[in-house]
């Protein structure tokens, strides 16, 4: 019975996220390492889009698994985008301190997600993770931290679509 309750809660949480099939916005986001990135630029790839912040303990705990799996699956067409929701204009300073002191491998994946992108993806809590198919459409979403095994299953499912 508890399992059914859990599934009901998960389904209710999923309904509060952007719907499957929704096209990603083509907003340009500043990259941590310089330049810009638009999700539209990633058509042809499966995108693992993680909304996170440096001050978020579950985000910090999940990030090593996201980076590890991003590296593992990039040869199969996966692109990881770590969309920082740290407050502007200080986000670059917070992210730099976090990357340098805690997670040097994170730098290449970080973009600064403006409020308009967070609003489209209905980001109201962190972490919030989306998978976009090769056409740039939402195929999966999760609010809250996932285990490495759960992340792996979602990546493989997204890559199969």
TrEMBL record:
Higher taxonomy: Bacteria, Pseudomonadati, Myxococcota, Myxococcia, Myxococcales
Keyword Lipid metabolism: no
Full protein name: TlpA family protein disulfide reductase
Alphabetically ordered keywords of this record: Redox-active center
TM segment ranges: none
Gene3D superfamilies to which the protein is assigned, alphabetical: Glutaredoxin (3.40.30.10)
Organism (species): Archangium minus
InterPro entries: AhpC/TSA, Thioredoxin-like_sf, Thioredoxin_CS, Thioredoxin_domain, Thioredoxin_ResA/DsbE_sf
Ranges of residues in domain Thioredoxin: 18-160
């Amino acid at each position: 019975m508890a399992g059914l309750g859990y599934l009901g809660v998960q389904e209710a949480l999923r309904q509060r996220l952007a719907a499957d099939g929704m096209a990603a916005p083509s907003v340009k986001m500043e990259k941590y390492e310089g330049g810009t990135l638009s999700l539209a630029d990633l058509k042809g790839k499966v995108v693992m889009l993680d909304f996170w912040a440096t001050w978020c303990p579950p985000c910090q705990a999940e990030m090593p698994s996201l980076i590890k799996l991003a590296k593992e699956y990039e040869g199969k067409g996966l692109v990881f985008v770590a969309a920082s929701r740290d407050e502007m204009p200080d986000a670059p300073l917070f992210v730099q301190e976090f990357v340098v002191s805690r997670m040097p491998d994170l730098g290449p994946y970080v973009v600064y997600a403006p409020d308009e992108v967070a609003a489209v993806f209905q980001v109201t809590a962190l972490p919030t993770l989306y998978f976009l198919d090769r056409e740039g459409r939402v195929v999966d979403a999760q609010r809250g931290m996932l285990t490495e095994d759960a992340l792996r299953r979602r990546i493989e499912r997204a890559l199969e679509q």
